Amino acid sequence: MLAALREDLAAQGVPLLFAIYPDHHAVRNRAHREQIQWAAEMAVGVGLTTIELIQPLLESRLQLADLYLLPLDGHPSPAGYELAAGFLAPAVADAARASARCGVGGQRRASPKNDGDLPSPATARDPSEQLKVPGQT
Question: Looking at the predicted structure, is the pLDDT value of residue 47 above 60?
């Protein structure tokens, strides 16, 4: 289904990006990140540029109650959405520029640099620094 959507959009010159916003359990504990890994592998497998937002959330050092509407609701809070938008906007602009230059496509994936449960210091401010082509190190 995602591959068909990607092809339909590509025919119109529109790139499809796949962003993964993790639930609060995954931000709190790396043991809950298997679903993120599965979704990212599936999306990259069908050729989608994939952006995992776990790292920006960890690097923000905001409390879970600031990132999500906890304890009553597990959806992102306005601050969580703002943080995600700040990370996604340059990636969307980059994809649009790349699409305009050389057509739609490119399998890239932003993946967490921090496998632990605690946030690490921010190292990459430009989202393209966290995007990589599958198969490359």
Answer: yes
